[in-house]
Amino acid sequence: MKTSHVWLIAGAFALGGLVLQGWGNAEADNPLHDPLGSLGMLLVILPLTLALNITMRRRRDALGESSPDSVEFRAAQQARSQAYGDAVILGTVLFAVLAIVADTLAALTAMAFVTLAVGAFWVRYRLARRALGA
């Protein structure tokens, strides 16, 4: 399927989602009270995100950026690792701020984020080492 067709389909879903949001209850207190608005929001966000992901992957493949020997691949990998470190530090700061300012549930949610982020890294690291035979 051509990239332009992917974007046309994603745009059609997004327009349908906007229509559903218009039919929904704008004064609802939470998303559970407005199922049409929530479904519309998903129909806007999800197809556009998938179309963007497909487009970026196709461009990387066409330009050879997905090859592990390319400069772009190494730069992207370095940027991802630095962004991960920043996310862990910011998550820890968020936990500390929420522990002081907000309630316990918010602080525990931030701590769960930090724990899951670090845990996901170590699981992926171990799997990658095992796949490489180390």
From TrEMBL:
The chain crosses the membrane at residues 38-56, 83-101, 107-125. Keywords: Membrane, Transmembrane, Transmembrane helix. It comes from the Bacteria. This is Uncharacterized protein.
